[in-house]
Amino acid sequence: MAKILVIEDEAAIRRVLVKILSEENNKYEVFEAEDGLSGIEKIKAEDYDLVLCDIKMPKMDGVEVLEAIKKIKPEIPIVMISGHGDLDTAVNTMRLGAFDYISKPPDLNRLLNTVRNALDRKELVVENKMLKKKVSKNYEMIGESKAISDIKSIIEKVAATDARVLITGPNGTGKELVAHWIHQKSDRSKGPMIEVNCAAIPGELIESELFGHVKGAFTSANKDRAGKFEAANGGTIFLDEIGDMSLSAQAKVLRALQENKIQRVGSDKDIKVDVRVVAATNKDLKKEIAENKFREDLYHRLAVILVKVPALNDRRDDIPLLIEYFAKKISGEQGSPIKTFSAKAIKQLQQYDWTGNIRELRNVVERLIILGGNEVSEEDVKLFAAK
Question: What is the reported pTM?
């Protein structure tokens, strides 16, 4: 049941609001405050889903109450109650963060619709926060080895800046994970994180994918289309496997980095973009440069900060933690009890040659959870995790 606080100094209006809301099919639990100061004290002491607040009140007016609530509990939607002469102020309160306003005397339908919409908005905000926490957990970096500790330290230092980052390392080591951590810990985390797998896009389409195109730019361009750089405006673009990008596309990316401008394919109009670029590759870009397959000037633009993600064979001390993490995650996904791994099973897995790195380890853990005993044993590892 949603909890609503009515802050109103006029007793008659307050009683009307409480009566209307309390009788709405037992959906709402309604509380009262006769002035702004007592309302603020109640909000400090209790959690409410919605506040209705009068604008003109003694001791503390509605605008001051609104500003105070936004500092104390910014997620609470606030609907202002305005008299005839308060309409301009009511409109201004929406600029300060109020959800909406209703006029005195309150119209029944208008009041109930506004309350429902405000509570729906609150629910959506809560769901988005939970989703962000869930996403953040999905990109958690697991490990206590020196290599991983060094990477975490670099991320802590670089995330708050707009410095470009180049992430290198073999396939399956978690380069994407590092990119997401940089974005989530940055000031751009409220903006989008747009991923582009440069290896998965045909060479003739990569420019359109990155920069967009205008209608008629090529045969199948039936309408204008924004590219990934525009979609990432205000956030981060992650160029995965950038070593596979064509030289032509590299030249355009270089211009975007130099000037913070792009041009859609088929257009000569500049579009300003505010994008942080994080790139990753499993290739030796210096070798690619020597073979004229990668632009040296682009490399130096991208590699302001270099992060090298180690192979799993170089961080075997982290394998027990990774096994525990994957076991819990996989069991949760399957809705099954969490299986433990015996000490001998873990030691056996630590001795394997993990050519597929963390991605391979996860697959093996899943296989052992499905096929192994209640506690995964050394024998289970020999039977089901054979290389």
Answer: 0.65
Q: What's the length of the chain?
A: 387
Domain boundaries, the chain: 2-135, 139-308, 313-384
| Assigned token pair, 281 | 């590759």
From the options 3.30.2130.10, 1.25.40.10, 1.10.8.60, 3.40.50.2300, give the CATH code of 313-384.
1.10.8.60
Cα(284)–Cα(280) distance, rounded to whole angstroms?
Answer: 11
Please name the amino acid found at residue 240: D
Q: What is the pLDDT of residues 163-218, one digit of tens each?
A: 999 999 999 999 999 999 999 999 898 889 999 999 888 877 888 999 999 988 88
Question: Which residues, at least 6 apart from 212, have a Cβ–Cβ distance to it below 8 Å?
Answer: 224, 225, 226, 227, 229, 230, 262, 264, 265
Please tell me the distance from the alpha carbon of residue 265 to that of residue 82, in angstroms, as a whole number: 52
Same fold, 2-135 and 313-384: no
